[in-house]
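#lab-general

N.A. 3:47 PM
ok so I finally got the sequence cleaned up, no stray characters, all 287 residues accounted for. can someone with queue access submit it? mine expired

B.Y. 3:52 PM
send it over

N.A. 3:53 PM
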Amino acid sequence: MRIIDVWAQHPTLRFIQHDMFASLRGWTGAERLTEEPPVSLTISAMDAANVDVALISAWHGPEGRLISNDEVAEFTAHAPDRLAGVASVDLRHPMNAVRELRRCVRDLGFVALRVVPWLWGWPPDDRHYYPLYAECVELDIPFCTQVGHTGPLRTSETGRPIPYLDNVALDFPELTIVAGHIGYPWTEEMIAVARKHRNVYIDTSAYTSKRIPPELVRYLNNPHHKVLFGTNYPMITPEKALADLDTLGLDDHATDLYLHGNAERVFALSKATPGAQPPPLVRLEEP
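B.Y. 4:20 PM
back already:
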């Protein structure tokens, strides 16, 4: 069965060694990395779990670029049939952020934008995001974000689905929103928002199959569920995330939607061409 991982990172050292991930490094083994990991390391982790495609994200926060868009473009160029790029931008400069997003999609072949609200301390309905939402609609790409509590020692308030994502979906009904990390401890709220808004989805990144809460398992068994598989690699490997999948009790249709069907539709990933196909890479400096 085809498997698409909608939330992953091919890490740089400055990303994986950042102080905010200190609480996660011990049990992921990432603290053992001493040099920039090759793309083959991520591909090997995908192969171990038969993952066909991973969407790998850039990371940009107030302190700067932890994984730059150009680095992600270089990573995807190594394996264009296996990796697709997800952009990240500097929220403090909205027009530059819009131009950078446009460059990532039109020139680098990226398939989505991701912003992690706890990095910025601004919830998703803050005015800094709104020009980017309009541009996502124009570019016909999803906006990906994090919901629920944070593993790093940062505020969790920005991860509340209600009112923040609910407000965004009301203001931008044409915007496709993919909410990662399931929204715990507000998972019921997140499911309610997904049921309410046609273009709102949930991904299970940062959770293994055994840790998915019962309320989300019940929703996954709905024949029309809007849940996508994600890992948050390298924090969780695909093999670990997919272990015990059979304990969820999903039928074939629900499993197809979860592992690839919803992702193919949301991110416009062709079945014939597994990953995004970026043009030949020309390295450009980001603003």
